[in-house]
Specification:
This protein has 198 residues and is mainly beta. It is 12% helix and 31% strand. The strands form 2 sheets. It has a 10-stranded mixed beta sheet with strand order 1-2-5-4-3-12-7-8-9-11, with helices on one face. A two-stranded parallel ribbon has the order 6-10.
């Protein structure tokens, strides 16, 4: 599936959805002060996409949650660093609130000074690298790919290529997405080397 087919009229339909209103009252999550352009918004899309799927366009740092009637909610995300981002089709095989985190052996090997101390795992919480919520990406025959759509407390990593392969949203926005996305949802991560189509 080509990204060109997905991106129709960009943000021509731009009703803002984000902000503190997406949070449950008991969530102790800060206001990240993101620019307005990074807030979730409803957009129009081409009509050949099924509703209730996730599509990640790394060239635009955009995650789309598709809706009926040629619409989607667009979130701004950070994505995997060059060489770590993995394109493909996946499904949501698990969902976790305030997930614990354990770096993969490959992460520890690449950067032992950053990750070796967490080899036995890190409990969930506001400082955890997976943030407030995580969607676990699986593939048939492979199971858990160790790729995630997850939260972050580090707003400066949004719209950047910084992660170990995952797509990240600030914590309040990932809570909003998490509440919309059921298990078995299809997830499409498009290639990261496509030119931007303004």
């Amino acid at each position: 599936m080509k990204r060109r087919k997905f991106l129709g009229s960009g943000v021509a339909f731009a009703t803002l959805i984000g902000g503190q209103s997406v949070l449950a009252q008991d969530e102790a999550i800060p206001d990240y002060g993101l620019p307005e352009a990074y807030l979730p918004r409803e957009v129009r899309i081409k009509n050949d996409f099924s509703p209730y799927e996730i599509h990640v366009d790394p060239a635009q740092f955009a995650l789309y949650w598709t809706l009926p009637k040629n619409k989607a909610i667009r979130y701004t995300v950070g994505i995997g660093r060059p060489g770590l981002y993995e394109a493909g089709e996946f499904y949501v095989g698990a969902k976790k609130s305030w997930p614990s985190w354990t770096p993969t052996p490959e992460m520890i090997e690449r950067s032992p000074q950053s990750y070796a101390r967490y080899a036995d795992g890190m409990p969930g919480g506001i400082a955890n690298p997976l943030g407030s919520r995580a969607l676990y990406l699986f593939q048939p025959g492979r199971g858990d790919t160790f790729l995630r759509v997850h939260g972050t407390n580090d707003a400066k990593t949004i719209a950047q290529r910084v992660s170990n392969g995952c797509a990240r949203l600030v914590n309040d926005q990932v809570i909003d997405l998490y509440n919309r996305v059921p298990l078995q949802t299809r997830v499409f991560l498009y290639p990261a080397d496509l030119p931007s189509e303004g």
